[in-house]
Amino acid sequence: MSPSHRSKPQKVSRLNGSWVVVALLAIVTAVFVRDHPDTLQLAVNHVLLKINLSAIDRVDCSDAHQYLTDAIPVKGFHVLCIKRTTDSKMQVTGFKDGMLSNHSVEVEADIDAFTHAVEDEMLQLLPPSDEHARQFKQPVAYFTPDGERLEKKIIELQDRVVFLFEGGQFIWPGVRIGHKTLVKNTFGRGDLEMETISMTPLVFSVEEFLRDDEIDVIIDLSMSHLAPSGVALQDGHENRPATDWRTSTTYWLESSSHHIVQDIDKRTADLVKVPISHQESVQVLRYEKTQHYDQHLDYFAVDHHRNSPDVLKKIEYGYKNRMITVFWYMSDVAKGGHTNFARAG
User: Fold this and answer.
1) Domain identity same for 302 and 199
2) Residue 75: inside a domain, yes or no?
3) pLDDT digits (tens, 9 = 90+) for 228-253
4) Disulfide: which of 42, 71, 242, 279 matches 231 by Cβ 3.0-4.6 Å?
5) Phi, psi dihedrals of residue 108, rounded to the nearest 5°
6) Which helix H or strand E contains 206, and what residues bound it?
7) Is 95 in contact with 101 (CB distance < 8 Å)?
8) How confident is the model at residue 338 (pLDDT cuts 50, 70, 90)?
9) Is there a contact between 217 and 330 (Cβ–Cβ < 8 Å)?
10) Which Gene Ontology MF annotations are present (predicted)?
């Protein structure tokens, strides 16, 4: 008989034993709860915790390796493997900056002790450094590897591999060029595969994100409204025309314009694991032959807008900014038309 066949009865036996203990506890509760309610509740909690620790398989920290990179450190992204070892202790293995090297510590199963041992000592996360950071910076956040946000509670974090993001928002790990990530259950398209095509900047490719009928709706809603594209002028570029950098035409397509646009919003949120409330309207762009947009950043760099107080306030001094751009290519051309990432690698 194979080892897998032998293991099944053992697991069932343990679970059956657990149910026997629970049944006995229920009988004891019925008899004695009136006389010793507080003491009995503590005993029940203790035994149930013991059952939980013995019946549930421990997390395997080797599962974390699939999310780690040997290419370049990913600043602000950390992978943790958290195991409950006893009633009061946990072992935490941390992979700082998403790299393969790791460090392990044993900590009390208490959120304050965990924070000090992991965030302060292991990862050495720095507190906000200035008044704007103290006012606007998001707190660190924990996520499952599939992008589900976790509450910072021991019961939520224990016995699993988790991602910690210093910026407070989820970003898929690129791992390495050519790596493929399966994003499950996206709205209207099911499972989608993302391929990493660059680590710096982080760029993924997704095939068949839009259906042909969705592309038709977007184009029909936008073509008659296209107008010359604008730019947010950086310091030193005041009073220069946008056409010095950008010669395309643009239309900002509101989600309320069509239910299909709303469906795509949902799919985009499923893909990037960032809520719809954080999305801008769809920016439809058309590039005719010879038209272009020079090399630029999609986010607003604080150091480039020191002379624009309105821009700085709008982006909360860099802490409320664009973090992800999702391009949809809606037409094919024989040559050109691509996006060039000058630092790609």
Assistant:
1) yes
2) yes
3) 999 999 999 999 999 999 999 999 99
4) 242
5) -65, 145
6) strand 203-206
7) yes
8) confident
9) no
10) metal ion binding; procollagen-proline 4-dioxygenase activity
Q: What is the CA radius of gyration of the chain?
A: 26
In a domain, 201, yes or no: yes
- Residue 259 vs residues 130, 254, 329, 332: alpha-carbon distances, Å: 43, 11, 20, 25
Residue 221 lies in a domain: yes
If asked whether residues 111 and 239 sit together in one domain, one would say no
The encoded tokens of residue 132 equal 């704007």
Q: DSSP secondary-structure letter at 128? A: P
**Residue entry with tokens 């604008």:** 230
Name the DSSP class of 99.
Answer: B
Claim to verify: residue 125 and residue 234 sit in the same structural domain = no
Give the global pTM. 0.80
What is the pLDDT at residue 5? 39
What DSSP line would sit under 240-288, residue for residue?
A: --GGGTB--EEEEE-GGG-HHHHHHHHHHHHHHT--GGGPPPEEEEE--
Partner residues linked to 214 by β-bridges: none
pLDDT at 337: 82
Provide, for the chain, the percentages of residues in helix, strand and coil under a 3-state DSSP scheme, each rounded to the nearest 5.
40, 20, 45
Q: Is 123 exposed, middle or buried (0-12, 13-18, 19+ CB in 10 A)?
A: buried
∠ Cα 251 204 152 (to 5°): 100
Measured CA to CA, the distance from residue 277 to residue 267 in angstroms comes to 13
My answer on whether 16 and 72 are in the same domain is no
184, 191 Cβ separation under 8 angstroms: yes
Indicate whether 161 and 184 sit together in one domain. no
pLDDT at residue number 22: 38
- How many domains does the chain contain in total? 3
Q: Where in the sequence is the domain holding 31, given as residue range(s)?
A: 3-41
Separation of alpha carbons 81 and 163, rounded Å: 9
DSSP 110: S
Count CB neighbours of 222 within 10 A: 21
Question: Does the pLDDT at position 227 exceed 70?
Answer: yes
Question: Across residues 99-119, what is the average pLDDT?
Answer: 97
Q: Which helix (H) or strand (E) holds 77?
A: strand 77-84
